[in-house]
């Protein structure tokens, strides 16, 4: 089975990214042949700082390796290193519906809050469809917010297949289980996020241990005293979930262990547990990130593997669409 996922090199990565994303990827590589793509071409669809893009691309790569992705086992690469992605995107735009692109909620949401809306923001899902389809991907682990984009990729694959002949595998999404969503520690009904969340409520993976402990100490819990997961107690539920993940047990076990205890105990313990949980990742990250030539050498290997896999699909696309191959 083929698995493909893309991650944008933007924003400081946080505990939610790690628990719901990177850590899952490391498990996903056990399921089959996995491709993890740092989607730098997607990151220019909203205004970006060139220096930032450069640094964050390498930051993210080091972070993915630190989180357990094995470059020998999986193909981990940068999207712009494999030119097939940009080419596929153009070819696929011929079988993408303009109307469907206009209905993408992410386009509407991101477009609404900007003065300048780039054409790239609009065609973003076409590039994403190409990412997935080039590798004849079976399964795509993604967040719930990407469901509509995956639907579009499936539609594009089907339209291409029916117009030009069977070329693409129609991919399916793998969505995180409920509970794999980590919420902001301050605004407990919002997902933890470096763009939409609060500074105090977002635990960054590279926060110093004392900063992490403090953020948990100040976490918003809810009224009532009982430490139980409940719909009307999103703050408590979130802390219980995080502690369960960090200590590798179930939320129910956490609840039992905290029977009769107060929120103060819970907050201190979650803080300590998260520090212990992320410290090895942070240390490994810092070590890897310090050696840029080595990171780039490893990335070149990833690009080569990815290119080898993407090339035949791209060639088939050109051929079936009627292009004359260069003699
Ligand atoms: N749009 C995805 C996001 O923002 C990133 C992405 C780009 C992606 N290409 C992909 C995810 C291909 C899965 C497969 O999260």
Care to give the gist of this entry?
The protein is mainly alpha-helical. It has helices spanning 15-28, 50-66, 84-93, 98-102, 105-112, 119-134, 147-164, 209-217, 234-246, 251-257, 263-289, 292-321, and strands at residues 2-7, 33-38, 75-78, 139-141, 172-174.
Describe it for me?
By secondary structure, the protein is mainly alpha-helical. It has 2 domains: 2-174 and 291-320, Rossmann fold (3-Layer(aba) Sandwich), CATH 3.40.50.620; 209-286, Tyrosyl-Transfer RNA Synthetase (Orthogonal Bundle), CATH 1.10.240.10. It has 12 helices and 5 strands. The strands form 2 sheets. Strands 1-2-3 form a 3-stranded parallel beta sheet, with helices on both faces. Helix 2 (50-66) crosses helix 11 (263-289), helix 3 runs parallel beside helix 12 and helix 9 packs across helix 10 (251-257). The longest helix is centred in the C-terminal third of the chain and has 30 residues, at 292-321. It is globular, with a radius of gyration of 21 Å. The two termini are 35 Å apart. The model has no long low-confidence stretch (mean pLDDT 94). Tryptophan is lined by residues 4-6, 8, 39, 42, 128, 131-132, 140, 142, 146, 149.
């Amino acid at each position: 089975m083929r698995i493909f996922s893309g991650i944008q090199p933007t924003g400081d990565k946080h505990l939610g990214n790690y628990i719901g994303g990177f850590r899952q990827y490391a498990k996903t590589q056990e399921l089959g042949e996995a491709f993890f793509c740092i989607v730098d071409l997607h990151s220019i669809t909203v205004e970006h700082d060139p220096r930032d893009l450069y640094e964050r691309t390498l930051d993210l790569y080091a972070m993915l390796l630190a989180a357990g992705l094995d470059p020998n086992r999986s193909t981990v690469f940068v999207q712009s290193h494999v030119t097939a992605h940009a080419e596929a995107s153009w070819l696929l735009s011929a079988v993408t519906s303009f109307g469907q692109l206009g209905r993408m909620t992410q386009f509407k949401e991101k477009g609404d809050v900007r003065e300048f809306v780039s054409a790239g923001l609009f065609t973003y899902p076409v590039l994403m469809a190409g990412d997935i389809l080039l590798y004849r991907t079976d399964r795509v682990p993604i967040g719930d917010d990407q469901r509509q984009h995956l639907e579009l990729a499936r539609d594009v694959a089907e339209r291409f297949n029916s117009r030009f002949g069977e070329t693409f595998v129609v991919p399916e999404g793998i969505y995180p289980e409920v509970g794999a969503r980590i919420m902001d520690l301050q605004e407990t009904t919002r997902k933890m996020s470096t763009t939409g969340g609060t500074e105090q409520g977002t635990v960054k993976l590279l926060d110093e241990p004392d900063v992490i402990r403090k953020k948990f100490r100040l976490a918003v819990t809810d009224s009532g005293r009982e430490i139980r997961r409940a719909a009307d107690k999103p703050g408590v539920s979130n802390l219980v979930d995080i502690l369960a993940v960090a200590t590798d047990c179930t939320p129910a076990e956490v609840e039992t262990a905290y029977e009769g205890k107060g929120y103060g105990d819970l907050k201190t313990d979650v803080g300590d547990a998260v520090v212990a949980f992320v410290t090895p990742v942070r240390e490994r990250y810092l070590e890897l990130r310090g050696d840029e030539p080595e990171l780039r050498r490893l990335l070149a290997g990833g690009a080569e593997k990815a290119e080898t896999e993407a090339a035949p699909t791209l060639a088939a696309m050109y051929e079936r669409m009627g292009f004359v191959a260069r003699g």
